Amino acid sequence: MDTRTVAAGANAIGLLERTAHARGFAPGPLPPMALRRIVEAGRLAPSLYNTQPVRFVVVRDPAAYERLRAACNTSRDTFFKGRKLFALMNKRLANPVFVEGLERQARGDVLPAGGAAIITLQDDAFTESVEACACALMAMQLEATACGLASAFSSWTRGLSFQKDMVEFLRVPKGFKIFTSLVVGNPLAPLEPTRKTRRAFDDAVAWI
Fold first, then answer.
1. Does residue 101 fall inside a structural domain?
2. Which of 124, 156, 188, 203 is the most buried (most CB within 10 A)?
3. Residue 6: inside a domain
4. pLDDT for the residue 92
């Protein structure tokens, strides 16, 4: 029996301390019902006025996941070809921290091998759909950690909206567009509190 699911009642801070961006996955099947639990967390995430403008596509078949990985690499390569132009239109793309992160993904595969992906779709009819998608992603990542899985957000899936074959492959409903995705898989090492430096509490919080 798989025992990676943490004990009931684990608090959000404890899960966040153990959640880190996964750069690779270990082979092997995922814990039973883990994907369903993770997507259920996204489904239950809050949305303004309970509009629920988010839908999900779970890519769990290994061949389908490999096709998704290749398409995300195409998305990345297309962005890098027009990167200077995009930076002129959006000054935030020139932020040094963002640029450093981009450079790390300039080569190789965008998505780790051996995982599964949960694509979030946003309903453009609702102006709050971006916030709803963000809430769903955070809820799913916390649940992934609770299930003992490694995880990572991937914004490169947004570029799939311009690949007609992938839009059809992912069965994106009319009126929806691809927002981003959460990829999950078995961790390469046990999930431990991350050593990544965080902004100091007093530097991040103002009390009024």
1. yes
2. 156
3. no
4. 73
